[in-house]
Write a structure and sequence with these properties.
alpha/beta; 2 domains; four-stranded mixed sheet; two-stranded parallel ribbon; 6 strands
Length: about 150
């Protein structure tokens, strides 16, 4: 972790919340980290709290994506950035478990979602990751990092 930066983790899973706290305690990172467990809708922070927010593979589970984006916008400082990392729908379709409880996003669907929010889309760049697992049925995964400006 970079010195002089404070990290805040937010999760709806009590298990993940406890695991993150345990990991940081075991690795001497407690002074730079805070973890908050919440119900998944109303983010428990004051307006304009954060400079940057980064989320990986959570977009699929947001019950009300537009409302959640606006909550993230509320807690970002003016000029703040939100980075959303998500696997493309094409790659997600190759995983059988994503048929249950996942909302999948193509680049167009993601960009439309952002246009309907308070954010401005700075970029939505594609990356390709090589997969070496024997369990998965494909050898590469396409994912994107959307960079949004407050």
């Amino acid at each position: 972790m970079a010195p002089g930066i404070n990290y805040t983790g937010l999760d709806i899973s009590e298990t993940m919340h406890l695991e993150a706290k345990k990991y940081c305690a075991e690795n001497g990172l407690e002074g730079q980290t805070t973890f908050v467990h919440y119900e998944g809708q109303n983010i428990p922070f004051e307006a304009q709290t954060f400079d940057k927010i980064f989320t990986i593979n959570t977009l699929y589970f947001w019950e009300s994506p537009e409302a959640y984006l606006n909550e993230l916008h509320r807690i970002l400082k003016p000029g703040g950035k939100l980075l959303i990392t998500y696997a493309e729908e094409e790659s997600m379709d190759k995983l059988p478990f994503t048929s249950y409880g996942f909302t999948k996003y193509s680049p167009d669907k993601f960009e439309k979602l952002i246009r309907n929010s308070k954010f401005k889309l700075e970029s939505n760049r594609q990356y390709v990751e090589k997969i070496t697992s024997k369990v998965l049925t494909y050898d590469e995964r396409k994912f994107r990092v959307g960079v949004l400006m407050c």
